[in-house]
Amino acid sequence: MSIDLHAPDCTPSAPPPAGPADILRVRALSAHATTGRLSLGPITRPCALGRGGITRMKREGDGATPAGIFLLKTVYFRPDRLPRPRSRLPVVPLSPEMGWCDDPVHPRYNRMVTRPFAASHEEMWREDGLYDIVVVLDCNLAPAVRGRGSAIFFHLARPGLTPTEGCVALPRADMLKVLGTCGPATRMIID
After folding, report:
1. CB-based contacts of 108, cutoff 8 Å, min separation 6
2. CA nearest 129: which of 157, 169, 162?
3. What whole-number distance in Å separates Cα of residue 78 and Cα of residue 75?
4. Per-residue pLDDT tens for 105-120?
5. pLDDT digits (tens, 9 = 90+) for 127-181
6. Which of 93, 115, 145, 179 is the most exposed place for a label (fewest CB within 10 A)?
7. Which helix (H) or strand (E) covers residue 189, if one does?
8. Residue 57 phi, psi dihedral angles, 5° rounding
9. Of 21, 10, 54, the residue nearest 36 (C-alpha)
10. What is the DSSP letter of 74?
């Protein structure tokens, strides 16, 4: 199987991973599945995917998880709900004023913003716990192309691994185990 390193939704911003331990692979269980398997070295866990399955042609609001190779950029966490997660990635506490712009016509599209924020955005300080741990993937970040998808994260899953809006999600215990092995060379390959 070949991986398209230049899928329409992601141009790698760093060299390929150094070895198998740096590859976080996500595969759907079937063609239009909303669940999949996430593997990192010997760790393999079930994961939730977008309600639209996996796509190579990501569009804002389609609910699909984009296929491609993505750096894991920054881990954010709710300091009022859990201690700082162990990871070699940058780890930053969330605060209630943090948001993420999902308005394709706004100059801050697909970027962290400070709330209150007039344009459409997601609240990063969520009551449902999905973003108690949330990792920004480098999907459509540099530069952000209008309408090609925003807020593509690796975050905590709902009970039963119900579909996401386009992200990859794991239960908390699995996320903590995976993050403990991730570092700057780790790439998420979604196919």
Report:
1. 101, 117, 119
2. 157
3. 10
4. 999 999 999 999 999 9
5. 999 999 999 999 999 999 999 999 999 999 999 999 999 999 999 999 999 999 9
6. 93
7. strand 187-190
8. -125, 65
9. 54
10. E
Q: Are strands 153-156 and 168-170 parallel, antiparallel or unpaired?
A: parallel
DSSP symbol at 164: B
179 in helix, strand or coil?
helix
Tokens representing 21 are 């331990």
Per DSSP, the residues of 16-49 read PPSSGGGEEEEEESSTT-SEEEEEETTEEEEEE-
Q: How many CA atoms lie within 13 A of 182 on its CB side?
A: 29
3-state secondary structure of 63: coil
The tokens for 159 are 């009970």
Between residues 48 and 1, which one has the greater pLDDT? 48
Residue at token pair 């530069």: 143
Give the model's pLDDT for residue 5: 33
In single-letter form, the type of residue at position 140 comes to N
Q: How far apart are CA 59 and CA 145, in angstroms?
A: 10
State the Cα–Cα distance between residues 19 and 183, nearest whole angstrom.
12
pLDDT tens for 38-72 read 999 889 999 999 999 999 999 999 999 999 999 99
pLDDT band at 18 (very low <50, low <70, confident <90, very high): low
Spatial distance between the Cα atoms of 109 and 106, rounded to a whole number of angstroms: 5
